[in-house]
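Issue 218. Parser rejects a valid record. Input:
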Amino acid sequence: MPFKRLISSVIIVLYAYIYVIGQATANKSLIAASILFAAISVIITPPKGRYKYLLIGSVLIFSLLTILLNHTYPTERLVFNILYFAVNILLCFSISSRREMIPFILRWCIVGLMGLIIVCFFISLSKSMHIYAYMDIILKGFSYNYISGLLLLSSTLYFAYHQKLNLPVKYGKTIIVLIVLFCFMLYGRSGIIFSLLLALGYFKNYLAPKHGHRVFIIIVCGVLISAFIGYHLSVLYDVVENSKFKEGLQSPRIVMLNEYFSSLNFKTLMMGVDITKLPTIASYNINPHNSYLNFHAMFGILALVIITFILLSMFNILFIDFGAFIFLAVYIGRGFLDTIILPGVFDFIFFAILFTRLSLYHVPVSVKDN
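Output the parser choked on:
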């Protein structure tokens, strides 16, 4: 990788680290610094092409107009989210023509998040606590589910990138197993479900009839795991009890969703719903726990247009590369359960994989180890 691209990639990794730390500690200065790091990366490796200045100007004008016109979203949070979304757009066009930066950035983000979970695990052991309980104490700006969510998002993009370009993933099986393990350790419903979906997407080709021995091994492992859980029912009960699976669909997220949709009319559809006036969302620090509701509250009809483009692009990928579709579907699906994307720390890579031409599609192959 050329030196400038390496430096820019390192700065983007630092941007992600600083952002996560800033959110975890509820430190506004660190969050602002993360946006500055992203902007520095764009300066070092600016978008290519004759229209790059038009792109930068359009993003800046769009950001300013949204801040001036939006009256349905808390101002301070709106300014941050607009800047955050703007740098994601610029980073997308910056890295899309320098695709070797993408796996480097994602690899080190995955390593950093896994390292954080491992450190917290050993500290929680020393304190005779569950890791999720310990992380719930030390995390001020978000819950432990957010950490498993970020790990899932970075990993799904990592696999989607390799799948789209028909490239093998080094240590892919190890990464998948660790993700599932960590998500179970963190006891989040969404983390457990989506990590299993990610594993299904990765191992789908192993269940093909031509891989009879693999199918046999997977069945044997499944039987052994089922027997172990059956013998140790307390383990299963503990997961269900502490991960809130017992609540089923009766959760505040459903109430928030109903409140938001009941507030829609022509004006709010076009301009966005004022979430500060919705009692359930307001009681959760004005957090709708749904990236798409949050996105629409900020941008109104423009958010619906962008989401429509995302769905149409996903529909196209479905018929071209089903493997990449599954990985990207995990990314999109996770956004329904938290305000973790749109804007999100990895959105620029998601947009680059989904919308830009990283490479011509080839005949899809399974994402496998070297």
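Fixed in the parser; the record now loads. Residues 359-370 have pLDDT under 50 and may be disordered.
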